[in-house]
Amino acid sequence: MAANTTINPTGTGNGVRQIAAAGVGNAVEWYDWYAYSFLAVNFSGQIFPSHDPTASLLSAFAIFAAAFLLRPIGGLFIGNLADKIGRKNTLSLTILTMGLGSLIVGLTPTFDAVGVWSPIILILGRMISGLSVGGEFAANSVFLVESAPANRRGFFSSFQYVSTTFGQLIASGLAAALVFNLGSAGMNAWGWRVPFILGAVLSLVGLWIRRGAAETFIEPEKTKRAGVFDALIKYPRQSLLIVGITIAGTITYYTWTTYLPTYAKANGSLGQGPLLLMSTIALVFFMLIQPLVGALSDRIGRRPLLIGFAAIFTAGIIPGLYLVSRSGFWGALGVMMLGMLVLSGYTSISAAINAETIPTHVRAAGIGFPYSLAVALFGGTAPLMGTLFAEWNNPGLFGWYVMVLTAISLVVYIFLPETARRPLPE
Asked: How far apart are CA 135 and CA 323, in angstroms?
């Protein structure tokens, strides 16, 4: 452990305040991220005009995927900053940069107004967001786990996805309300801008709340500070392990919570409004069960939940996608909620299992880079891959793609040592 680098093993600060500080900023960060995914179908034709709507949507999702490529960079450099100046200060930086990125997207002029500058401005906004989100997870996840008492790390960890889902829920609910009230014409003309501009305002609220949090990390001496690449160089096995842990979680998460409405709309009979409503209901359920599953992991361990999650999704993703796209509203909702329950076996303990894998003095950067790299390669590309398979007239291949990636992590989980009852590595 680096000199003068420490955390409180029994939890730091007031638990409720620490969770709120982490959660509010995280929710704002992910609200913006998911608003882009939900509303891409509305603004893609404005920014990437084409006679083929699928081509326009494909371009918008390509930018979505490209922004993910900056997440590992944000996870590495901003994560290293959190290992130097502390988690709290870094979290203030990430929420401000996300607000800036959101504002840029909301004010992006159309292609008809400024020509090629339109997609360039959109790309700039998403690149800023990508850097911010990569750093946010790195600092936020360790902040939560380091704030937790030793026997409640799974419970505290679950609020990572409680807040993430709350942000997604606000984005989904607002998108649904705008669609029902403005219709397609109003959404395409100007309605899609509202959530992004609101996100910029909410980022300032998140910054204000985070100011009251307690720091979980004591700044080390300058001569003992971890270098940017120390986690990768000194802990390569742990870095690879985090990638393996993350692959199944990220591909299923982005498939089931982000791309599913688009997939069902393209391959079924339900319209955008009902699908967004269905997604909103399922997300409420998903958010509420996170603390329950996280607390369960503190009792029975992390491995059983991870193995169960990956095994069920490996066997069930293909029939699950088929049922969602071919069922009516209530049938599809039931399948979606069942998938959410299984998925919580990963999401509720993601922050805990990662923090329990790598030492304190390189923890934020050590989690941030490999985790964000896996998300960029396999999670952020999920909408793009699904859209590509549809463009190639074989949308069913997407389920096989998800199944193979989930099976890879299943093997990792089977051989993963149990970490729930161990002290955080120093």
From this structure: 36
